[in-house]
Amino acid sequence: MRAFKSLLVTTAIAGLLAAMSVRLFALPLPSLSGPWAPGEMRAGQSKLVNPLNTTDYITVDWIVLYDSVGVWGYPGSFVYMYQLENTAGSSGIRAFNVKYGGAQGNNDEIGIKAGDLDANNPPLWSGHNSTNFGNLSVETEPGGTPQGNLGNYNAFFPDPNSVSYTLSGITISLGRESLVLYIIDPRAPTYGEAKAQDSASWWGMVTLGGVTYGEPVPVPSPEPGMFMLLATSLAGILVWQRRSKK
Q1: How far is it, in rounded angstroms, from Cα 223 to Cα 219?
Q2: Which CATH architecture has domain 30-221?
Q3: Given CB 3.0 to 4.6 Å as the disulfide criterion, which of 49, 58, 82, 184 pairs with 108?
Q4: Superkingdom of this entry's organism (predicted)?
């Protein structure tokens, strides 16, 4: 009986820890919760900071599109668009990594698109500005132009839980921005972690003295199985509690 109780507790705790790896954030960013209307876009700007100097930061402009009709080629999927802006970085940006809330799942496509997210590019996206998105009235813009061409960028999966974009031959220098980096995935968005790097330092989210600096970006949400794992774990704890009272 004791062995059974121990097994229940161990399984429940392991499940809770796995499910809680999906980090929750309470930051002043637009809601990503549903329902999403066909063709709806939501936009925001997230700041990533250098953990050694929080005044050394870059920004990520982003737009999420519910591509109901398939203008990007995959009807019913969500398109996650990112543009890196070297707003106040101490060095050039060489790489960008987006971490999912869970495993990759059934990604439709990752890649790079030529263009500037700030400018209208119908039907792929509406310009990332306050005219199209009222919540962007206070965003920070470096004023630069996209740097490099498609041949300077590469997109790949470094592990089952993230997507990476790397640059060769160039870096995103101060006052400049990247091309449009994208993920197309059938799963609805949630907020998750991102990190940008140069050869010696990185920018992301960091907690110092109990204060969190930096902000998350939209990522494909965890697989439904993660939530089933959480529910199963909670059920296991309840069963153990009831048995222990008998």
Answers
A1: 12
A2: Sandwich (2.60)
A3: 184
A4: Bacteria
At residue 13, the pLDDT reads 39
CA neighbours closer than 13 Å in the CB half-sphere of residue 138: 5
State phi, psi for 198 to the nearest 5 degrees: -115, -160
Q: How far is CA 65 from CA 36, 128, 138, 145, 194, in A?
A: 9, 12, 21, 23, 19
Q: Report the first-to-last Cα separation within the chain, whole angstroms.
A: 12
The domain limits of the chain are: 1-22+223-246, 30-221
Full strand arrangement of the beta sheet holding 180-185: 41-50, 53-67, 77-85, 180-185, 109-113
Q: What is the pLDDT of residues 176-189, one digit of tens each?
A: 999 999 999 999 99
**Residue of 133, 111, 124, 153 whose CA lies nearest to 61:** 133
Beta-sheet strand order (sheet of 95-99):
153-159, 162-167, 95-99, 194-197, 202-203
Q: Which of 211, 204, 215, 233 has the alpha carbon at shortest distance from 49?
A: 204
Q: Which residue has the tokens 């109990």?
A: 210
Cα 107 from chain centroid? 14
The percentage of the chain sitting over the pLDDT mark of 70, rounded to a whole number, equals 74
Residue 80 has pLDDT above 50, yes or no: yes
Q: What is the pLDDT of residue 17?
A: 35
| Model pTM score | 0.79
- 180, β-bridge pairs: 113
